[in-house]
Amino acid sequence: MAAFLFPVLIIPPTRIYPAPLFPLLRASLEDPRRSSFVAIFIVGLLAGFLTRLPIKVIGLAAMTLFPIAAFADIAKDGTSHNLIPFEIVVYLLHSIVPLLGGLTGRSLRQLMALGK
Q1: Is residue 82 helix, strand or coil?
Q2: What is the pLDDT of residues 2-50, one digit of tens each?
Q3: How many CB atoms lie within 10 A of CB 26?
Q4: Which of 13, 19, 47, 67 could make an S-S bridge to 27, C-beta 3.0–4.6 Å?
Q5: Which domain holds residue 70?
Q6: Please, are residues 62 and 8 in contact by the beta-carbon 8 Å criterion?
Q7: How many CA atoms lie within 13 A of 8 on its CB side?
Q8: How far apart are CA 63 and CA 84, in angstroms?
């Protein structure tokens, strides 16, 4: 989550959307940046290279806190996130990026092992 939010903290968005608990998180999701996706790709790449976690776990773990934050927003304000099923689909689609990073990292580790 930090990797996805970091670019928003460096270059603040032009608009901060109202949110019950996490306005910066909402801003990062409403107006995603390429650098956010590059950052979560790098997180996936490092996780795939340095750990033996299954690739599916790497992809999902990178985006797990987003639905948790959405449900926390719902608990605070029941009128927010009235399209939560679609949001979860978007989070799953976003998890493809770190999953690809994990696959790349795992492949790099295997290539380096072959070269020894």
Answers
A1: coil
A2: 888 888 888 887 777 788 888 888 888 888 889 999 999 999 999 999 9
A3: 21
A4: 13
A5: 39-116
A6: no
A7: 24
A8: 15
In a domain, 54, yes or no: yes
Query: Is residue 59 in some structural domain?
Result: yes
Residue 92 inside a domain? The answer is yes
**Spatial separation of the C-alpha atoms in residues 102 and 42, rounded to whole Å:** 8
- Quick: pLDDT tens for 9-20: 888 877 777 888
* Whether 20 contacts 80, CB under 8 Å: yes
pTM of the model: 0.86
- Asked whether residue 55 is assigned to any structural domain, the reply reads yes
Q: What's the pLDDT tens digit per position in 35-94? A: 999 999 999 999 999 999 999 999 889 889 999 999 998 899 888 888 889 999 999 999
Residue with tokens 């968005």: 13
Give how many domains the chain has, as a whole number. 1
Over the Cα atoms of the chain, what is R_g? 16
Dist CA 78 CA 56 (whole Å): 31
Q: What are phi and psi of 33, to 5 degrees?
A: -115, 150
